[in-house]
Amino acid sequence: xxxxxxxxxxxxxxxxxxxxxxxxxxxxxxxRRYFDWWHRRPDPWNMGTDAYxxxxxxxxxxxxxxxxxxxxxxxxxxxxxxxxxLVRAHPDAHVTAVDISERALRRAAERVAEAADRTLLVxxxxxxxxxxxxYDLVFCSETLYYVGRGDRLRQASAQLIGLLAxxxxxxxxxxxxxxxxxxxxxxxxxxxxxxxxxVETAAHRPFAVSVYRAPGxxxxxxxx
Length: 224
Fold this sequence. Notes:
This protein is α/β, with parallel strands linked by helices. It has one domain (3-223): Vaccinia Virus protein VP39 (Rossmann fold). It is built from 9 helices and 7 strands, in the order αααβαβαββαβααββα. The chain starts with a helix and ends with a helix.
């Protein structure tokens, strides 16, 4: 990473730490406007076409066992590029995809129209999302650095763990080595165990895929 890029990333993170000084509701409102602005044009980060993103998606899926999984959650789905991969990789699962930007979700709906009967798109932020069910498999990629300072990160980590069904799998994907900081509350929680970690250092933007499992057996494995 170049010095200019490193400085830009540090300024980016500082901005979101400042936002987290607001109440959770105020922080969520500003993030919603921020991401709606970014999504004024389709695929603002080229997730659907960028070779790096495609390689990261493939590496993420490769770290997760085949299942079966009844319920899958993707937190921070943007326009549904990875969501589409999920519905195709797990044709028997119901997939819930969450994003704070309604503009992004409208495009995500088009992308996953092939599986509309088993896909639910929800406009919400990580800290306030509520669910009727617990999930066998939860993904959170490139999202935790947006929640800001430590207490919000701790809250977000507890939220993700709380969304897991017994035996459920949590997958966190974030830049490396920043992932050490972003995943630390999950690592220290004692509520889940880390079962694997893949670190890609050869990419122009290194990343880590950390996989955790909650104790117990999922409903899917119990009936399989």
